[in-house]
Design goal:
The chain is α+β, with helices and mostly antiparallel strands. The chain contains three helices and two strands; from the N terminus they run αββαα.
């Protein structure tokens, strides 16, 4: 996560937060319901990027592509 989100982010019970030298944070999330996690991550807009696991990153990308397709983008 980056920007203001990284500065104010509070870890949840199932998360580990690592501060990076460039002002971003890396959040490791374990055992959160996948649909709930996707919904939460999408609210963070461009301040959040899913890096791993690759399969989950692809799932997020597909959700975004499907959403944009609804709007003819």
């Amino acid at each position: 996560m980056k920007g203001g989100l990284a500065k104010r982010y509070e870890a949840r019970e199932n998360e580990i937060v690592e501060q990076n030298s460039d002002g971003t944070i890396t959040v490791t999330n374990r055992n959160e319901n996948e649909e709930r996690l996707i919904s939460r991550l999408l609210r963070y807009d461009n301040k959040c990027e899913v890096l791993q696991p690759k399969m989950f990153r692809e799932k997020i990308k597909n959700v975004l592509d499907d959403t944009l397709r609804n709007y003819g983008v």
